[in-house]
Amino acid sequence: MKTMKKYILMFMVGCLGLMTSCIGDLDTMPLDDNNLVSEKVYSSKEGYMGVLAKCYASLILTGQQGGDGGDGDLEGANEGYSGYTRLLFYLQEQCTDNFLMPSSSNGLRNCLNLNWNATTSVVTWTYQRLYMSIAYCNEFLRECTPEKMQERGVWNDMSADYLNYRAEARFIRAYCYSMLCDLYGNVPIIDESVGVKDVPVQRTRKDVFEYAERELKSILGENGSTDELLKKSRQNEYGRVDEVAAWFLLARLYLNAEVYTGEARYADCLTYADKIIQGGDYPLASDYRHIFLADNETCSEIIWPLVQDGDHAQSSAGTNFYVKAFVNGPMDELYQTGVGSRGWGNVRSKTTLVDAFDPADVAFDANDTWGNGKNDKRAQFMTALTAEDGTPQTKETWDANLAMTSTFTCGYGYIKWRNVNKNDDPADEAYTSIDWPMFRTADAYLMAAEAILREGGDRNKALGYVNEVRMRAYMSDDYGSNAVSGKIADGDLTLDFILDERQRELASECVRRTDLIRYGKFTKGYNWDWKNGERLGGDVDDKYNLFPIPESELTNNPTLEQNDGY
Question: How far apart are the first and last CA of the chain?
């Protein structure tokens, strides 16, 4: 692991020990100034950086001790289940055509069948987790002012950098609001100016969208702001955001603006996606598989990583979940998983994900565990397991009652996440050291191509963008010596092809639900395994395009109104 990554993690964990161990019932209410951290935290620059670190860490860690140590961030929540990136899997992948996790605990079966409600645990915890991160950002912004830093005697140490720090906190807050907009729609907007005794006012989905948009443009200096700006591209430390992250988030907001606000903004999406692509500071990795390994801090295309480490950032969420839930002990006998026999093996690919790839690329070869012989290197499936009776498994052999055996050998595993480095050496067998790629450049290419087609723009440009992603996936043309090119012809390029390409490229990266909703295919007209509780799927009520405001929030803030249909 790189020295910089280790330094950031050790600094983060050391500073977090000064912070309150547990946030109770968030209830979308502003928290008391002294509820999050003690005054002694702000006695040094390092203390301020610790609070900023917590703003980042709240999206990847689960508590103060690590390893599900019983000191979780959300009081009353299962610490492992309530990690943010793990929650996103349930809300963005489990309910789509990508993955199956048959457990019924904490509302997982509700997510699989698309029949959640306002008391579903994982729906509630995601809402609370996002507002908790917002609360940390607001806390930092309230305390990181010239007046307070001068009072505390840290101004000389902070004056040169504090405006950049504030911009980073505002970015993280804007990201959280973008996700609240996407998942829940009409929610309160709470910033650092909202008082402790103020009752937050619920805003429309469009208001939330526009708030995130304004914040991002402000920290980019695009609305006349000249002070609280993100650092320029590649000018920040690893693990912290720069201006390219804001470009990416704006592109994603604009790609989905028609869903969020009723107004299409595809030209704006293309503008910001193009800035990422043409800027060239985060080029596509030479090998797709390198993005999901334990040494992916060396990967060129990850714009915003959430830093994870087997020694200093342990939990049952984060990328630890994306390895252990996707593999089991027998798989480690077939290829190097990097977690030994510690895999849980309770996530499997749905048939629709398997069918998105050429069947010739799907099979796992024990003599070619990296899939070098495949054309599309993204087709990373485990097909070599046998059932308890010794018969080979196929994608058609899922138990009709969805009752997986205790050894979890049914169906096809998905194995693109590996806790090893590029040399196939394990990073750590207890917990993973894979950084979570929040934003990466391949997504910008596909967003740009989709925006062009929806705008009726330059098809040749869109084709070039899609083919860039596909050449890398096939390691053909400019990316390798594969005789089979990943390129497609203009006649193959359609919006539906891009949706399928996003599934192949981004499976398990927690954008699938959002993509299907944008295409009008989430609730009606397109079905997959166990949607609506049926083996072959069935249509569901359109209310499921949004998650409900959690019942606990409605109880504690009676001014909130529930989403339609709930």
Answer: 47
Note whether 234 and 242 are within 8 A (CB). Answer: yes
pLDDT at residue 403, as a whole number: 44
Position with higher pLDDT, 367 vs 78 = 367
**136-195 residue pLDDT tens:** 999 999 999 999 999 999 999 999 999 999 999 999 999 999 999 999 999 999 999 998
- For the chain, domains (ranges, CATH) are 22-168+507-537 (1.25.40.390)
More confident residue, 256 or 413: 256
Beta 413-414 vs 381-382: how paired, if at all? antiparallel
Query: Cα 491 from chain centroid?
Result: 33
Taking 70 as the threshold, does the pLDDT of residue 451 lie above it? yes
The two structure tokens encoding residue 230 = 């993100």
Which of 103, 17, 25, 15 is closest to 53 using CA atoms? 15
Token code pair at residue 155:
């101004």
Distance CA 289, CA 424 (A): 12
Determine the pLDDT at residue 182: 99
E-only strand ranges, 196-346: 302-306
Q: Which long-range contacts (CB under 8 A, 24 or more apart) does 518-526 make?
A: 518/255, 518/256, 518/258, 518/259, 519/495, 522/96, 523/114, 526/97
Question: 283's torsion region: left (phi>0), alpha (psi -120 to 50) or beta?
Answer: beta
The 3-state DSSP class for residue 365 equals strand
- Whole-number pLDDT of residue 34: 43
Asked if residues 338 and 432 have their Cβ atoms less than 8 Å apart, the reply is yes
Residue pair 243/220 in contact (Cβ under 8 Å)? The answer is yes
Asked if 200 and 29 count as a contact pair (C-beta separation under 8 A), the reply is yes
Contacts of 251 (CB under 8 A, 6+ apart): 269, 270, 272, 273, 276, 444, 447, 448
Mean pLDDT in residue range 417-437: 93
Identify the residue with better confidence: 419 or 2: 419
| SS3 state of residue 386 | strand
230, 220 contact by CB (below 8 A): yes
| pTM greater than 0.90 | yes
d(CA 177, CA 392): 46
